[in-house]
């Protein structure tokens, strides 16, 4: 029996589609130094999650697979490289992911404005004529579909979520399509993950981080095209969904950036550089790629919710996050720790691999019940995002603080406020 990813709780079924734009300038080879070079431009690649109509006949639509259908073996092989660097684990991943699907229907039609207002649960969604937007940035050795528990939850509540696939060598795999239609893999670049001040490792990760931030900004450009002139977008994938219903439907004035681990670091860097991004939700922020200038000196004018897991922490990471917070406006960063949870408990991967193989993940997997952990995080994230939207809609267009974790907020008992050793 295939593993089950937690269902979204919102009133809307979720549609999804893939969009890849044309590669304009190819790397000499697939070392990060070439992938991250200034001139390299592989275009953008995203899975778009969105609310579909409540009367959707789901029997007419296929559920999206968890590991992408296109080039599944590439993605599975990349996962095995990061975890054990052995071929047998690739076989395990291929076996257990077979039949695992997301709670999202491929190319289902986008919800109409009237149905959205009638069925939305949140005032922030009902009061707006447009759909709020979240961009999701994946972590190291993950890809655009690994966080569907969060992406589909947001979409089921009325958000459009653009889950990016980074092509800097940090995804478990990716690919681009040449002008002649050839699919070329962008493989995962393996290196030991350390936090011992190794300058070579920092330079590598920082180089990838800068590339990832640029990819976020390019994706914002693509979302603007989707909102203003969707028919001009050249999707190079064989399956080309109709993007015209997205015209004038996106609220890009309050875009929220969300990411996990390396993706959280990417979000933090991008929030400092691209003023179109208004708010951040950071899951298990990994500070190594950021460098001392950002976490010691730079001031961010955007509100942040940081959710860390109890089993995934070490002193340098804690100290850097604290240093960063100390340089920001009081109250702009709100941090909680999910008790008994590990790094992998913020992805879809936990239910895919059986508990008998949990040793593969080590301290990255916590004792918390996976579905419960996902649900309490989803609730917290939704409530934070909707409060941010309500405050923005009411005229606070340049928010630097949401003041979410106030005395009035009933924080679930599985969270503690703050993050420390």
Automatic annotation (TrEMBL):
Q: Name one Pfam family in it.
A: PAF-AH_p_II
EC numbers listed for it are: 3.1.1.47
Transmembrane stretches, by residue range?
none
Q: Which UniProt keywords apply?
A: Hydrolase, Lipid degradation, Lipid metabolism
Q: Which residues form the active site?
A: 261, 284, 343
| UniProt entry tagged with the keyword Lipid metabolism | yes
Q: Which GO terms describe its biological process?
A: lipid catabolic process
Gene3D superfamilies in the cross-refs: alpha/beta hydrolase
Return the InterPro entries for the record: AB_hydrolase_fold, PAF_acetylhydro_eukaryote
Molecular function terms in GO for this entry?
1-alkyl-2-acetylglycerophosphocholine esterase activity
Q: What class of enzyme is it?
A: hydrolase
- Catalytic reaction equation(s): a 1-O-alkyl-2-acetyl-sn-glycero-3-phosphocholine + H2O = a 1-O-alkyl-sn-glycero-3-phosphocholine + acetate + H(+)
- Please give the name of this protein: 1-alkyl-2-acetylglycerophosphocholine esterase
Organism of this sequence: Clytia hemisphaerica
